[in-house]
Design goal:
By secondary structure, the chain is α+β, with helices and mostly antiparallel strands. It has one domain (about 10-180): 2-Layer Sandwich (Beta-Lactamase), CATH 3.30.450. Helices cover about 50% and strands about 20% of the residues. It has eight helices and five strands, in the order H-E-E-H-H-H-H-H-H-E-E-E-H. It has a five-stranded antiparallel sheet with strand order 2-1-5-4-3. A hairpin with a 3-residue loop joins strand 3 and strand 4 (about 135-145). It is globular, with a radius of gyration of 16 Å.
Length: about 180
């Protein structure tokens, strides 16, 4: 968990959203801030160098993230289309080119999906995730623009059921206890 430059209030918002995993990402989907639930349920972003904290790299290059997706092909197609829309909205074409070139070189699936030129709105939806300890979890996700920062968006994954919320809370509480010891 880090502070986002001049925006330490954003980190406090993320932290207040527990047990919902939440993160802040750039126009090219680099993750720049997250809460403990995101660390425990999605990825331990803090253990990665900043240049490796990219959602597209996770989806297309990390076998653990691939395995966690309930329907990887649909998730990957959605991610590529939503990424294309976000990058265009933020005017990040120059930043996108090196990432797209890298992913086209390393992932035939990304290359194929990128060439489809699909554009999708991120908005809201339901996302099932297979967690190695908790099994299948369902999240209602929402993406929000960060006011005054067209280069940033916040994504929140709300547990879809009270049972999922309790399982997540239990896991994040035990992770928090380990951090304090």
């Amino acid at each position: 968990m880090i502070e986002i430059g001049d925006e330490p209030g954003l980190q406090r918002v993320l932290d207040a959203l527990e047990p919902s995993p939440a993160l802040i990402r750039t126009a090219i989907w680099d993750v720049v801030a997250w809460n403990r639930a995101a660390t425990v349920l999605l990825t331990d972003y803090g253990s990665l160098p900043p240049e490796e904290r990219n959602v597209l790299r996770f989806i297309f290059l990390d076998p653990r993230v691939h395995a966690a997706q309930y329907d990887w092909e649909s998730v990957a197609r959605f991610v590529v289309g939503a990424f294309r829309a976000d990058a265009a909205r933020a005017g990040a074409a120059a930043q996108v080119e090196p990432l797209v070139a890298e992913l086209c070189r390393l992932s035939p699936e990304f290359k194929r999906m990128w060439r489809d030129n699909d554009v999708r709105s991120h908005g809201e939806g339901v996302k099932p995730i297979r967690h190695p300890l908790l099994g299948l979890l369902a999240f209602e996700y929402s993406a929000f623009a960060v006011d005054g920062r067209p280069d940033l968006s916040m994504v929140v994954y709300n547990p879809a059921t009270p049972a999922d919320a309790e399982r997540i809370r239990s896991l994040t509480d035990s992770a928090g206890a380990l951090e304090r010891t």
